[in-house]
Structures are given as C-alpha cells and as structure tokens.
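Purpose: get a first structural picture of the assembly so the mutagenesis plan has something to point at.
Setup: two entries, given in the order below. No constraints added.
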Amino acid sequence: MLKAKVHVRLKHGVLDPQGEAIGRALAHLGFEGVGEVRQGKLIELELDETDRPAAEARLREMCEQLLANPVIETYTIAFD
Amino acid sequence: MRAGVITFPGSNCDRDAAVALAAAGAKVVPLWHADTELPKLDLIVLPGGFAHGDYLRCGAIAARAPVMSEVIRRAAAGVAVLGICNGFQVLAEAGLVPGAVISNAGLKFICRPVDLEVVSTDCAFTAGYGQGQTIRLPIAHHDGNYVCGEDDLRRLEDEDRVAFRYVDNPNGSLAAIAGVLGTGRNVLGLMPHPERAADPKLGGTDGAAMFRALVETLG
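Result (structure tokens, whole complex):
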C-alpha cells in the first residue's frame, strides 16, 4: 500500500480569483508583505501497489485522464 | 426531430430544455448519465446545472460519465450536440470543443440577461439568426470564463467557430467568447441559456429561434 499526494495547480497566467480573494483577506487581517497567492488542490490517494515507478505511472494516467485538466492545470506527484 | 436531453446527478435545467425543445416541435427523449446505449437521435442536449456538484472541476466528472462515450461517438458521426452552461463545461472537459471554462473574473455568481452578438450563422444552431444580430439571453453562472490557448483561439476565429460573443463581457472570457463550435460545426457549447428565453412568460424569446432552427434543419 502506497500513499500518494497529487498537487494540482493552475498554470501560470490562468486567472485565480480564489487566490486573489485569499490574498485580500490576508491583507485585511493585517498580514503585510504577501505577494501573489495561488490556490491549488491536494488529492491524496491510497494505492494497492508497492512498486513506486509503477504507482507513479498509474498516477500520471489518473492525472492525465481525470485529476488535472491539462488545458489549465499542472500536477506533481509525491509519495509519503 | 428527436432530441435527447441528458440528466446528470445535479443537472437542473434539463426540464427547461425539454420544454423549449417540445415547444419548437421536437420529440424529446429523456436520457440518463449512466445509459450506455442511446436510441436514434438528431440532437443531444447537455443541460445546465451543477452536475456532480461541480466537484473536482465543473463538468469534469460528468464528462467521464458512461453516456459520454456514446455522445462522443455520435458527435464524431455528425449528430448535433448542444451544451448549455454546465453542458458547455462538460463539452470542454470531454474535448468536444476546445478550451476550458473557469471561474468568473469577478468573484460573483452572475445571474442576469446579457446582450450577445451572433458571430457565426454557419451552423444548425444559429441558422435562425442574422449574422451580427444582437440577441438577449440570460446567464446564470459562477464559472463561465472561457479560456483557450493562442493556437486554439486563432483556429476558432479563422474557421468562423466563435458562435456568440458578449457585447459587454461579464465574466472575463477570452475575446468575450460566449459560445463556440466544435470542428465539425455540429457541436455547440454556450454559457447563456436559450431555453430561459424561449417563451414570453420567461421575459424574452430570443432563444426560441435556436430551437426552431434545430427542428427545421435536423428534423
């Protein structure tokens, strides 16, 4: 059993109003010196797999087919 | 003209679409997201709503629903497919139209009538309008901001596949695009709701011409 973490992020240049809203809220709370804020997604999966390269290959397919939209998002895969 | 309207879990404009289609003379066939076989159809409609709660991304899970393999096959074979609002998001996620539909540039859910320019009349959906005509349809969305890559945008413009543009861009959409056609011109995705402007009781009838043109062209 492997535990994987997939981070999905909006590509640079894709508008992120949620990130902007978070940035403004931080400023309202008095946190200074905060620049750009971007919000992504973390998807955690348990895989019935012990071989890391095989797991990574399967996760890539999952990302390409569902978890990330390649038009607007990029992804990274990490293991616990 | 036989029009199938797909209901996904969370679709809420399926009945309105069926009513507008029936009023235009179509025989409406209700379809279910888990259907793997479809009857003979002249038009397939993906209605508005919040399929799968917009979980993961708007339209993402619906685009991978069992029924979509057959919808994609039919689209490739030339059957007309109309995606309205959430349906447009599903078409983009399924690759039946280019690009993606993301969060509105402001942070608000926008719910009001907007003026649209009919950019292309070269398809069954817009054959009932005049080129350059301004029509008024309601929008009701939080994630209606159309984006696509430079190459896709160039292709859309060169091939006359931008169907509608907002006269006054409400949501930040690239090139004020409100609706686009797939490469075969038989698939249309648009964010505004023609079915909500298809009866005088609804406050507008500019959408009726789309359904009438579909019945006349595909019937």
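The CA atoms of residues 9 and 40 of chain A lie 5 Å apart.
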